[in-house]
Amino acid sequence: MSLKEKKYIPFYRPDISDAEIEEVIATLKSGWLAKGPKTIEFEEKFAQFVGAKHAIGMNSCTAALHISLLAAGIGAGDEVITTPMTFAATVNTIIHTGAKPVLVDIESESGCIDVNKIEEKITKKTKAIVPVHYGGQACDLDRIYEIADKYGLFVSEDATHALYTRYKGRLIGNKPKGTVSFSFYATKNLCTGEGGMLVTDNDEIAEKARVLSLHGMSKNAWNRYAKGGTWKYDIEYVGFKYNMFDLQAALGIVQLKRIEEMQKKRERIAQIYEEGLKDMEEIELPKACTFTTQHSWHLYIIKLKIENLKINRDEFIDLLKERGIGTSVHFIPLYYMSAYKDYNFNPKDFPNTEDWWKRIVSLPLYPTMCEDEVVYVVENVRDIIKKHRK
Ligand SMILES: Cc1ncc(COP(=O)(O)O)c(C=O)c1O
């Protein structure tokens, strides 16, 4: 495709093959639609894939993040540390427990939490850290767990972007010391439309998370309508309706089988971007930070050197849009959101986040993107930069 043959390349298209469709149809015909055998199968396969003892299917990563904190006993009067360079769900779920979110700036190489700035935000009220594996980079987990051990804090990793990311050779979610929450939202590396998974090696947290995610009903109550199930149950906690159900799990089981194939396509696209853009001085390309031994390439985030351009980031996005290319920005820092104004966050306290936010653009990257489309994006990015460099 040449520059002149304008086409629409959306920011995201799902990758659903006939195999997923067949599995969903088989599940529809199975007579069991709610949480049931497919959910259990997906949980077992997912736990095995990442190398965790327990995996609990949820209807979103948001649910998994919320339940993680509740299962760890976080609540009113507590403080929980995370970063402003994340989606609202990370902080909303902290607030929903009754705790106060405390934001720490990102470090400038990876966009993940700056581990050197965590300790200065720890108070007597601090109970947990929610590090976000941003874009597919890994946070410095050894340092984070070292700090958590020193101050007796719980760690709930937000791994929305990090399915397939490796930290020092280990998959995110492998032998987790706290909890790790994954998202299977439509745009994610593994997609069930909406969905999420909480993984942990902690038996107590796993048990509580299972119960809390299904109304707080006693163990195995999901099975009450099956042969051999019982109608008797107790409500052990005031819980939530956060569980995964079998149609989601049907998609998840097949997507998990295809994860390597889809990942290879993501890697190939990242490679084409790298090769096609590396000589452009006005663009900083994403690089896996030192301990990220495998980037999940959930997002391909470029940073514009706007000081060398006659256009700003928003104008760059508009120009790509005019040429039929969908992009996104991950993220608008949380301290700009009106819902959090009562926390009095000050942008000046987050210089690295501020610097990133003005310059970042996420280019389209997904397994159903064909090479022609990637090349089209590269050519247009190059052309816009050339036309607007100072
Ligand atoms: C960093 C981060 N955390 C949490 C979420 C919430 O995920 P979900 O939509 O599965 O609830 C998102 C959504 O994209 C996200 O980007």
UniProtKB/TrEMBL annotation:
Q: Pfam families recorded for this chain?
A: DegT_DnrJ_EryC1
Q: Where is the signal peptide?
A: none
Name the active site residues.
K188
Superkingdom of this protein's organism:
Bacteria
What are the BP-aspect GO terms? Answer: polysaccharide biosynthetic process
| Keyword ATP-binding listed | no
Q: Does the keyword Aminoacyl-tRNA synthetase apply?
A: no
The family this protein is said to belong to: Belongs to the DegT/DnrJ/EryC1 family.
Question: What name does this protein carry?
Answer: Glutamine--scyllo-inositol transaminase
Q: What species does this protein belong to?
A: Caldicellulosiruptor acetigenus (strain ATCC 700853 / DSM 12137 / I77R1B)
Source organism phylogeny: Bacteria, Bacillati, Bacillota, Bacillota incertae sedis, Caldicellulosiruptorales
